[in-house]
């Protein structure tokens, strides 16, 4: 009688030549399922790679020279605006006692909630940041991902600095991982979001090298939306929510394409600009 794994093989690979089937048999795990291709999760057959969130970083980071975090609304945009004006930004995953302690340790101001007059995850709040300012910027998405990269060089990319980010990333090496951060559902799970997908595509478009299908899909979506980036992002869930809360100007700033040459680079757990 055919075993469970053999049935799966005959169903899925019945049209393959015998030697191809034999190769797949060697991949069958103890649970009877087919093992993934070697590059299935880390896109290792391509120079330019793209995957979502923390699991994407964990998968892609070992094989690349640099990681680009894309959190358009609004961590990466805030960091670009702040650092281009001469500030240093310390990412932190939560606005809690640990963030307050970090701010004290590094002599920085702790960013607070939007609309309360100080620095926050509102890009508008950083337009007047003084040169030399030091800010701890909590974010459950972009900041958390920034701190999860061990020793891999890490950049903060967005629409505003997409072309410049690609240029700096290329200097680090041919193999680049572009990570759209996404948002979080109430249960903490990842919610892929349009603005980060478009931001990733805008950066990848300017990167030389072979692209994974995921990376190419991001470029395709960006090109399809390039004629009305602001309109698309305003209408998507994240953009609509911000505009509805009175932060429509944040969306406008975030959608300014290639207006900045500043590329924030994570150095000693803080973002500083590369111009």
Describe it for me?
The relative contact order is 0.18. The protein contains twelve helices and eleven strands. Strand 8 and strand 9 form a beta hairpin. The radius of gyration is 21 Å and the shape is globular. It has two domains: 35 residues, no CATH class; 227 residues, putative 2-phosphosulfolactate phosphatase (Alpha-Beta Complex), CATH 3.90.1560.10. Helix content is 39%, strand content 16%. The strands form four sheets. The chain has a four-stranded parallel β-sheet, sandwiched between helices. It has a three-stranded parallel β-sheet with strand order 3-5-4, with helices on both faces. It has a two-stranded antiparallel sheet with strand order 8-9. The protein is an alpha/beta fold. The N and C termini lie far apart (67 Å). The longest helix has 13 residues. The N terminus is likely disordered.
Q: Could you write a compact summary of the structure shown?
A:
With 275 residues, this protein is an alpha/beta fold. It has 12 helices and 11 strands.
Helix content: 25-40%
**Main sheet?**
4 strands, parallel
Whole-number radius of gyration?
Answer: 21 Å
Our count of domains comes out at 2
DSSP E strands, number:
11
| Side-by-side strand order of the widest sheet | 1-7-2-6
Give the CATH H-level superfamily of the largest domain.
ComB-like
Top-tier CATH class of the largest domain = Alpha Beta
H and E string: HHEHEHEHEEHEHEEEHHHHHEE
Q: Which blocks of ≥5 consecutive residues have pLDDT under 50?
A: 1-37
